[in-house]
Design goal:
Blueprint: H1 3-22, H2 48-56, H3 59-66, H4 73-83, E1 85-87, E2 102-104, E3 107-109, E4 113-115, H5 121-124, H6 128-139, E5 144-145, H7 153-159, E6 164-167, H8 173-185, E7 190-194, H9 204-209, H10 219-226, H11 229-243, H12 276-285, E8 289-295, H13 298-306, E9 311-314, H14 328-338, E10 344-347, H15 353-361, E11 366-369, H16 371-403, E12 416-418, H17 421-429
Parallel strand pairs: 4-11, 5-6, 6-7, 7-8, 8-9, 9-10, 10-11
Antiparallel strand pairs: 1-12, 2-3
Helix pairs in contact: 1-16, 2-16, 6-7, 6-16, 8-12, 13-14, 15-16
The structure holds flavin mononucleotide.
Length: about 450
């Protein structure tokens, strides 16, 4: 038998194994409520959705999602940090019953990854927040609804019970109390407080593209929309005709202004003064699980623990706040060591099953993925997100087997090896991630 024949045979067996596995965990294919359109089969990994979204979306929207701040150093580092580690495999482990399921805050999930909170998702896809939440629910992974979203939290929770809510805290205790009352009444059980936005990041790409809230409908912005007809008809027109102008629905206890209305949504500097006392206050008011997002320092993780939070998300906001902020993966071991008894989650640059494995080997209990799911929603709505989740879950399961584990709990630091800068340079000079693609 030639190498080609054996490779083809292996691929057939592997494909069969993947489709068998897919029927049991995190598989959108297995959920009959979600239809994955045929055209979505051409997307083979999370990064594939970005190029298609770039074509479909107005420049200002794609720029808003894809960019970071200033020199984009943190976005690059987030991705590169995963290249700083190589996987050390174990062989002959009979790891055929790979199962990526995990338990977080007492809930079982089909895989140790979820969808990060992303504001303005309903501008990217018709009912974009619901699309992501429904696909996540069907695949049994968590999705976090952003506090800067344009779909009322009550609607999202009804469509996908179990969705988490992320809040940007208002600057006044009474406003905080009323917001938390609304989140609780809507049925959310897990609350994420984002801590890394004392002031908005310096988003030069948005300024360049004229993307701002309130949105000014200049000739340039209008042309940007008109010249992307499939978005204009499928998302913008449908949204305005069927649901009206998008409003900032969940920023505060009451509905906020529309995307076109001028209003001071941040409360005139009160948010900038926010500190640990507000986290203590939230802890005293919120009875559900409480997670602090945007932690990059072990001392802050320890302080969060003292406040009584149930978990932290290590994050630099996908490189959208402080340019040059350290990549979450690089501070993960120190943060896990500081709070070993709390779930430590991480986001930023996670794109592959192997990234999930590296993060868990270095101490993460769970990871979140942002941009690719937004792009997938913009391309295929709920089905697009379901396809993206299934791809990630399938990659993860295949890679578990190749690494030599059956369960995520078998991972430890012995499965990763730091790669020094010289070795990494040689690798990236050869073309890096996509060198194998013709
Ligand atoms: C378009 C967009 C909007 C975002 N909005 C929020 C938000 O409202 N709240 C928040 O905590 N994080 C927000 N984030 C950050 C994500 O939650 C997450 O930290 C980041 O996207 C992870 O990096 P990744 O996109 O490389 O996976 C946003 C990210 C993007 C790309």
């Amino acid at each position: 038998m030639t190498d080609t024949q054996s490779a083809a045979g292996w691929q057939r067996n592997e494909a069969a194994a993947v489709s068998r596995d897919s029927s049991t965990a995190a598989s959108a294919k297995a959920d009959s409520r979600i239809r994955i359109a045929e055209h979505l089969n051409k997307y083979l990994c999370l990064d594939d959705f970005e190029a298609a979204a770039r074509k479909k979306l107005p420049r200002m929207l794609y720029g808003y999602a894809a960019s970071g701040t200033e020199t984009d150093a943190s976005i690059r580092q987030n991705r590169d940090s995963f290249k700083d580690y190589a996987l050390v495999t174990r062989v002959l482990t009979s790891a055929i019953h790979r199962d990526p399921k995990c338990t977080l805050f007492g809930e079982n999930h089909a895989a140790p990854f979820g969808i990060a909170p992303m504001g303005a998702a309903a501008l990217f896809a018709y009912r974009g927040d619901v699309a992501m939440a429904e696909a996540a629910k069907a695949a049994n992974i968590p999705m976090v609804l952003s506090g800067a979203s344009f779909t009322a939290m009550e609607e999202v929770q009804r469509a996908a019970p179990g969705t988490w809510f992320q809040a940007y805290l208002p600057g006044h205790p009474d406003q905080i109390r009323r917001l938390l009352e609304r989140v609780s009444a809507a049925g959310f059980k897990t609350l994420v407080i984002t801590a890394d936005v004392p002031v908005p990041g310096n988003r030069e790409v948005d300024k360049q593209n004229g993307f701002n809230v309130p949105l000014k409908l200049t000739p340039r912005i209008l042309w940007d929309g008109i010249s992307h007809p499939s978005w204009l008809i499928g998302t913008a027109a449908q949204t305005v005709l069927r649901r009206g102008l998008p409003h900032l629905e969940n920023y505060r206890a009451v509905r906020g202004p529309s995307v076109l209305a001028r209003a001071d949504i941040r409360g005139g500097g009160a948010v900038d003064r926010m500190g640990w006392p507000e986290i203590h206050l939230v802890r005293s008011l919120w009875k559900g699980k409480l997670v602090l997002k945007g932690i990059l320092c072990a001392a802050d993780a320890a302080q969060a623990r003292e406040c009584g939070v149930d978990g932290v998300i290590i994050s630099n906001h996908g490189g959208r706040q402080l340019d040059g902020a350290v990549a979450p993966l690089h501070v993960l071991p120190a943060i896990k060591a500081a709070i070993p008894d709390l779930p430590v989650m991480l986001d930023g640059g996670v794109r592959r099953g192997t990234d999930v494995i590296k993060a868990l080997a270095l101490g993460a209990d769970f990871v979140f993925v942002g941009r690719p799911f937004l792009y997938a929603a913009s391309i295929g709505g709920t089905g697009g997100v379901a396809r993206a989740i299934a791809l990630m879950a399938e990659e993860l399961k295949r890679n578990m087997s190749l690494v030599g584990i059956s369960r995520m709990s078998e991972l430890n630091a012995g499965f990763v090896m730091p790669i020094d800068a010289a070795m990494r340079r040689t690798w990236s000079e050869r073309g890096g991630e996509t060198a194998h693609r013709p």
